[in-house]
Amino acid sequence: MGIPVVEQKRCTGCRECISVCEVNAIEIVDEKAIIDYGRCYGDTESCRACIEICPQGAIFEME
Ligand code: SF4
Ligand code: SF4
What we know:
Layout lengths: L2 E4 L9 H5 L5 E4 L2 E4 L13 H5 L5 E4 L1
Antiparallel strand pairs: 1-4, 2-3
The structure holds iron/sulfur cluster (2 copies).
The site of one iron/sulfur cluster has 13 residues, from helix 2.
């Protein structure tokens, strides 16, 4: 388990990660995904939804 981190250079702002995050922890600012770590529970439970859906491989898991 770890927190999802967006590699800004790869993100195209496609919003697919937003569509799968059930706690609305992701927003797009200037066409880049930003994760709200106050909402994301990836560090305490096993959620990799945004990581798995990203077509650019722009989100990785940091332990
Ligand atoms: S799915 Fe990937 S490329 Fe699309 S907005 Fe999210 S982080 Fe960016
Ligand atoms: S790991 Fe899960 S809860 Fe956290 S931002 Fe991604 S989809 Fe949302």
